[in-house]
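ugh finaly. both done.
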Amino acid sequence: MSNSSEDSFGVRLAAGAIRCACLVVGALPHWFLYGPLAGFVRFVLHRVARYRLRVVRDNLATSFPERSTGELRTIERDFYRNLAEYFIDGIDIAGLGERGRLKRCPWPDDNRAKVVAETAGRNWVALLAHYGSWELFGTYGFYREGPVVLSAYRPLKNRPFDLYYKRARNLLPRVLSVPSNEILRFFVSHRDGIDGSPLSIALIADQNPPLDAQSRWVPFLHHPTVFFHGGEKIARKFSLPVYYMRTRKTGRGRWEQTFEQIWDGTSPTSDYEITGAYARLLEEDIRREPSLWLWSHRRWKRKPTGDAAREYAEKYGLS
């Protein structure tokens, strides 16, 4: 796993300056950060910069053809408000310790006890999404009876910001950020646990993955969609239970995370069944509270072609 010693002095200096600036801003009161400041950021993103506005509107219109223009504009406005809060979260984490993060995004006692009992000290996979503030969702690893979280991430092209986020995410020892292309090797090297705790491999699976021979298209929000299936591959290879992380917003900058089991790690399962179940659960959440998903992603640039298109049409009756 790469570390900051590989970065140049200039990159480390710039990352330090970013952290100092974030600490200064993050010291402002919560009500100001997530009230006036978030409102200002929303206005700039939505009305001034019009950040990926065409992408957002196209995605919403094709995902919810049954909704009126007025309803779509309401979702759009609320999405930009949430996006502004996610931006503030990225600043605020610079000064948030374990106590602050747990206050902002707790893991309820009843769900925690259920997952601990179901996994019984085993390693497991958590499938997440860009639904809610992903910068705060590793907090389930802070509970001592819970797992150590291996949080897979894709390094940013901007090296100072990449180093800033990597340091902020690794601020506490029970949440370890690991580059996505190193996650399997890191897990295998530590599969017996870390400091006596099992591991949870946390993967955000709703990004637009490269296609390979094992990719499968499934219906998702009225679109043929392909998902990252690395979580399923790791789970089936090592017989790891798989959980979908449910996300609920409880206030500005405040969340609650719970887990729903997709696979117990032992029952018979077919190819792509786990990933397909993840897609269905995510769609349920998005339909319930659509403004929390990251609509600015160019999620549906590609369509199935050739054999993949024929297979999709035969299986789902759609073209």
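ok and the 2nd:
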Amino acid sequence: MSGAVSSALPSTAAPLARAGNTGVSRRVLPGFHLTLGYSLLYLSLIVLIPLSALVFKTFTMSWEQFWVAVTAPRVMASYRLTFGASLIAALVNLVFGLLVAWVLVRYKFPGKRIVDALVDLPFALPTAVAGISLTALLAGNGWVGQFLEPMGIKLAFTPAGVVIALIFIGLPFVVRTVQPVLEDTEKELEEAATSLGATRLQTFTKVILPSIMPALLTGFAMAFARAIGEYGSVIFIAGNMPMISEITPLIIIGKLEQYDYAGATAVALVMLVISFILLLVINGLQAWQRRRSGASS
């Protein structure tokens, strides 16, 4: 019996050995061409076709009409507020998101699970609810605003309120992107740096920061992109005053309500192009950082 089993093993293992020698590996998903075809079809239906419709609708305008629509003073002011506030909010989240992720990963304290769950609250909370809550908090008669406005600090219905709303909705992107990378970081490297005489600042800048920098840039890009397109939470706290606190998505909504579809698509196209360029630059920085980290290691 044992001889029969042993004689059967070579015949079973031989095809596997030959497959391993020839470099042939079994894949769970279908072949490359079929999988690529499904991927391109899905991306076309979800992303490319809607965006191409935006471009084609803009082509119904002449160049002069397009230029007038996208460079009107009110539209230009909304560009400055939207991209400026989004950049400031993403930078703030870059710093404080890292701190929150660090506390959740490196420390144990009572209520840690509750704090961890609260980080995801902006994901689940409807944006209109977030806007109303922030307005009730920061308005002149709100819980916080009633103490700040007598000191000359006005947050609601100003560009500062827009930044606060964008910080609120963008924080989870940084925390959830950096947190798993921090969890996988080898603490032995930090201990080795400390034993070699490195200070805390040197350990952070030379050991920890290079390993989490790609994740930080990814979280920054996601928070920035989310802030650019945010609408629901901002319109309540911004006040929507033309040339002061009016964001570009509100400009687009206003043009649609006036049946100016070509003008709305023109402004949306400018937003699309600028956002794509900025995200392309950020992705380039991510790739450069990964190559640098790989070369240094």
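summary for the 2nd one i guess: The CA atoms of residues 158 and 238 lie 6 Å apart.
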